[in-house]
Specification:
single chain, alpha+beta, 2 helices, about 20% strand, DUF2905 domain-containing protein
Length: about 60
């Protein structure tokens, strides 16, 4: 259980570090990434970005 908590913490830490870089590369602004306002908040659902990054990770996993 502790291992999974550490892995999740490290993954979230890496994601937070790479988020500005991904925004500079255009991720998060792709067609299919949803942005809308509801309940007084702005919501962001990165569908296309998630699929694209998952595909890239899968390719890297198959090569290695």
């Amino acid at each position: 259980m502790i291992r999974w908590m550490i892995v999740i913490f490290l993954a979230l830490l890496l994601i937070s570090w790479f988020t500005p870089l991904l925004h500079k590369l255009g991720f998060g602004k792709l067609p299919g990434d949803l942005r809308f306002k509801a309940f007084g908040r702005e919501w962001f659902i990165p569908l296309t970005t998630t699929i694209l990054l998952s595909f890239i990770a899968s390719l890297i996993g198959q090569v290695i």
